Fold Beta-galactosidase.
Amino acid sequence: MSLLVSFYQLGYAQKSTFEISDGSFHYNGEAVPIYSGEMHYARIPKAYWGHRLKMMKAMGLNTVATYVFWNYHNPSPGVWDFSSGNKDLREFIKTAGEEGMFVILRPGPYACAEWEFGGYPWWLQNEPSLEVRANNQPFLDSADVYIQRLANEVKDLQVTQGGPIVMVQVENEFGSYVSQRTDISNEAHRAYYDAIHQSLMDAGFEVPFFTSDGTWLFEGGAIPGVLPTANGEGNITNLKKAIDQYHDGEGPYMVAEFYPGWLDHWGEEFVRIGKDQIVAQTQKYLENDVNFNFYMVHGGTNFGFTSGANYDDRHDIQPDITSYDYDAPISEAGWATEKYRGIRELMKQYVPYEVPEIPAQIPLITVDGGIELAHSLSLFDLKEHREPVISDEPMTFEALGQGHGYVLYSKRFNQPINGKLKIPGLRDYATVYVNGEFVGTLNRNSNIYELDVNIPFNGRLELLVENMGRINYGAKITENEKGIVSAVTINDYEITGNWEHFKFPLDKMSAESSGSATKGEPTLYFGKFTLNEVGDTFLDMKAWGKGIVFVNGHHLGRYWSIGPQQTLYLPGAWLKAGENEICVFEQLNQSVPSSILTTKVPVLEELK
């Protein structure tokens, strides 16, 4: 019986060793390969963790890698949550161990991962002297508190203590950040990087560390004495050359992010990578003793307001869609794709352990006749029951003490004015109203920051501003305030005095009092539906405009008619036999049906 087979069967009953030596990974002294898949516990209902881990094993993998998102566990200063719902990191790691899987922990504090702010808490921006991801003492102090708090949760789950954690990453893709921030000295970059590494060691992480960068970025990202791993490197010669250069001329060789798919943005086409291409690349790694981690093997979903954003030369922001399907081998809903089956058949030819059968798929349902939305309430009516924050100039979300959701900016004019409204500091999307009438939208994603308005005597201008997700990658990660971050002008005259701010975080939602809603007003719709049996399903949002959905208090994420995503994944684990509640917040409300249809086949799957 090989050591790896016994590892699968016996689990983690006692303290073990995991070391890097002689160009290989060694578990209790015997060389083992790392065939890993990335899967983030935060993006999967807790009830499904075991199923998804079994899916990974049945694909031939022996390791699961996961990021830890600082902001997911530390939503406000001094508030920590490592136990509720999907946040039970300890349980996720223990479940992986029970399934016979090694665990690679990627604690950041910077993660990227198409996650809001790359994992940083939004409230860090309220400290004027703090700069994220820099040799800045206020930031390093905050990061050290996080690292210590995380270590207290999981350090006894390292393989040296009888748990499944075998490696820990130091920061993430720092070499690419060094290449972008040419305004910072190499000495300052190195001082920051070394401080994070030291903080992880001081907190009690004692398994091997690794770094992760593109091979051409090892100069800024590698740390002496720490294993460098590559992201996205398909050329075996380049991979081994780079790792040899920075790791004493020997392996092990590892691609820490092997991309079987890619991320998707609102308003752009789905990105797809063919099965044959990924199977062929996997075979190259297997034939050349290259360890790897599929990023992602199973993407899951950006539930709530967790999705991040990118930017490029044509878009000031590119918000990520709700689905994090990623065209991964295991689909958003946990299905085995053709890509999955191709990789599985290949792995069975190479791995030194038995590959189990594919687990049964989670049952699927539809709701007969759709879900009727019988009640509605205008956000403007809801506003009347909230006390505004008043200031001379528009305030950011952060200054208002709100991280996510929406803020309604309201300003009354005692003289008529018409002309060009300009909000160059919009972050990120605004619906514009004059005296309650819809005028139009402004949109940072499309670089639209101005439109014509005609405000009468004693008229009111209102701007419902949405945070579409903070940037998670690149130099602009330091520019992540939301709301309105600079002056609002009409005909180039700054509009000041008595701005009212109504906060609508909409992070939790239950049935409100019924009211009436007018076309064009942002509106909350409520409904109930009864189920005889539960199972996964998808809400068909093609007929809707833009907004968010809650079912039984669970925030499913955003929908937007510009696509490419047109359905929202609704896990059966969040449904119940009997009565269920749904709430839809529709921002545009131009032409909305009275019900929502469900389907067993999401648009994402139709394109695979």
Summary: Residues 1-11 have pLDDT under 50 and may be disordered. The chain has three domains: 3-350, 371-375+509-606, 393-497.
